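Deliverable D4.2, example record:
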Amino acid sequence: MPIKRHPAVDRILPGGELSTRSSRGDRIVTSVWHDPRREEASRALVTVHGGVRAADVETGTLDFKEDQSRRVVGGLLTAGATRHEPTARDLAEAACCFANAHGGVVIVGVDDRAGGPAAFVGTSLDPEWLRHRIWELTDPHLAVDIETIFSDGGERLLVIVVSSGLTAHKVSGGRYKHRVGAHCVEMLGVDHAALVSRYIDWSAEPTTMRFADVDFAALLVARQVLRATEEPGRVALASRSDEDLLRALGVLDPITGTLTRAGALLFTVTDRGRSHLDYIRRVRPGADAQVRVDEPGRSLLVEFNEVEISIRLANQRVHAVRLGARGIGEAIPRPAAREALVNAIMHRDWTRPEPITIEHLGDQLVVTSPGRFPHGVDTSNVLTTTSRPTNPHLANVMRSLRLAEREAIGVDRMYREMILLGHRPPVITQTVDAVRCVLIGGSPVEPVTDLTSLLSDDARADVDIVLIIYWLSDHPRVDAGTLAPLLQKTPEEASEALTRARHESIDGNSVLITPVKVGGGGFRLGNRARELLAARLPYFDVLPKEVKPFVVELVVEQGSVRAGDLIDCFGLRSIQASRVLSELRDDGLLAVGSVKTVGQGVFYIAGPRFPGTPVPPPVADDPRS
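Output generated by the structure prediction step:
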């Protein structure tokens, strides 16, 4: 069926290819081998246009749906709505049926009771609204791709592409269903068990591409990165013949001579009309692009190499000072930038056509990859959950090339590299259909580098200890309960991390952290550490009035506070500590909680004006004792 060309939308080409136009007007072609679901959709549309009833073309991976907001009134078809809740719910259920089976495509705007041009009734639904509404209506949330195409008669259709899920999805309030043949039926208990146990590694599946299709520029890059490791085994691997190298990496089948999808992705020009990575460098948001790397028709490994070089060249050099010695550093640590890019490649959904975007804005790097977190991973455990790459075979190849961490601790490395220079940890979030990693760099923070440069190698490599330093750079004390969410571990594990940090020393002499002397418990930075970080700490060696917000924080954490806390945590003198507590009491933020009102043993609790905390009655003794 000929499909009318339309700017900035997807269309299906003869032969099963999908053509896309980017926002810049560049034509992108997704080849057939990359997604057979789109190929099936193309063939089905041709068949229906030729006169076959749409329902007779439906399969276990293809369904046709009408837009229920379009009605025939007076013999004419109404335009329909851009947002229509009953249609969205119907399509959400169809998407769940495919996700709970083997994935599939829903084509919206086709009357499945008809064939020929009359079957193409069209739709006015807003694809962005529909995609988000499907995500909202499903439990757990289901992300789908929605593409717009036009028929020969100009009718607008939507193509919903659904990937196979790793867990069962349903419409909220509904039942679990899956696709069986051309029907959506309720799932049985045995169906649930089979769904949980299945896992299909897209990147390990074979392709029809062979060694003759390999891009030799990609082989050159592979040898460069292997030699750069300086590991004898990797250097020896780089010296093998081209075919032996690909076999050793596991991407070339020694029997069939075909490449895996990961091999085709990394080493061949699979999609000459599209790029896998889209890198843009701007001095600041909204400014003109200084560098753009988005050239289609190259292998992923070649694109990766060029993007990494571009990041390195654009990564603003800053003067780094460590214990008085000046040097040259990078605004964003190179290992952190590489891990952000590598993780996006290993975990993204490669069945979707859009590229990974890398926005380099000033001293900030934002990497956005299509797809969602691997099953079982979310923002609360992304640091500690064992890596479960969406594409295990692709991940193994990248580890063999040493582009990725062998121990699958790339997120740990990003955290460490950023914090050791005084930057905030990576911000890793999930949107409706993408994962976004933000690295905010800048000039290394001199007090922090002064401290971290004096730690042992083991301490610098321990992400828990690094995170303890990060917390104590902004807070006067820490205990296991407070630390656990930051480490994404249990309080027991956080307590063990504090014990490790307690046994660490600075330059072999002073302790890194020390127990808080008074009844509040927990730990604070050691005296030498506080001296090194003094210019960075917002609560130490400052005017007494500047510690008042931190006193309130202590009351929230401990339940009470006394002068000894202020002396130990904030470095105040005894008379200063007493004055601060008296002023907070006069302001109504604190109240005397002990029987005694003056002298040793006096402590304070939340007062009548304390933010958000009810005032407990006075007690005879300090509740911490």
